[in-house]
Amino acid sequence: MKSKIYPSPAVALDGLLFDGMTIMSGGFGLSGNPESLIPEVRGSGVKRLTVISNNAGADGFGLWMLLESRQVAKMISSYVGEN
């Protein structure tokens, strides 16, 4: 059985990211979000993302990073508070 533990976020996402893809992120606010994967997605330069999550993070943290870099075309959220 192949291990689900990867040595780095870059290795975990290798070959998976493409323009126009949908990403679903767990967590609530900044708790439980994939904080090591989000910067890797941002750095990949993928565009036109549809992101599904409870919310959009907070200034400079979480999914906000992808919004800030204008990589998100559509955001689907169940909680829109101070975002």
Give an overview of the whole structure.
GO terms for molecular function: CoA-transferase activity. It holds the Pfam family CoA_trans. With 83 residues, the chain is an alpha/beta fold. It has one domain (9-77). It is 20% helix and 17% strand. It contains three helices and three strands, in the order αβαβαβ. It has helices spanning 9-13, 38-44, 64-68; strands at residues 22-24, 49-53, 72-77. It has a three-stranded parallel beta sheet, with no helix packed on it. The radius of gyration is 13 Å and the shape is globular.
List keywords for this structure.
NagB/RpiA_transferase-like, globular, alpha/beta, 83 residues, 20% helix, single chain, 17% strand
Question: Brief overview, please?
Answer:
By secondary structure, this protein is of the alpha/beta class. It is built from three helices and three strands; from the N terminus they run αβαβαβ.
SSE topology sketch:
Blueprint: H1 9-13, E1 22-24, H2 38-44, E2 49-53, H3 64-68, E3 72-77
Parallel strand pairs: 1-2, 2-3
